[in-house]
Design a protein that fits this description.
Order of helices and strands: EEH
Mean pLDDT: 92
Helix content: 55-70%
Low-confidence stretches: none
Number of strands: 2
Strand content: 5-15%
Number of domains: 1
């Protein structure tokens, strides 16, 4: 507490970080929609990463098995 000034209880918007009344997650519907879009994009990138990793593992195992029989 600086200089005796005390701020009212509040939270911050999950997307832009602006102060919002305590208990709210977003300052407006635009930030809510933007956060949902960001989460979808993040989830899509995660699925692509793990899918690519699985494909690479299958290819490495197939090549290893093929080389064993040469």
């Amino acid at each position: 507490m600086v200089g005796g000034l005390r701020l009212p209880e509040h939270s911050h918007c999950k997307f832009c970080g602006d102060p919002v009344p305590f208990g709210q997650e977003f300052c407006d519907e635009e930030c809510r929609a933007a956060e949902i879009a960001r989460e979808k994009a993040e989830k899509r990138k995660e699925y692509l990463f793990w899918g690519s990793a699985a494909i690479v593992c299958v290819i490495v195992m197939a090549v290893g098995t093929a080389l064993k029989y040469l």
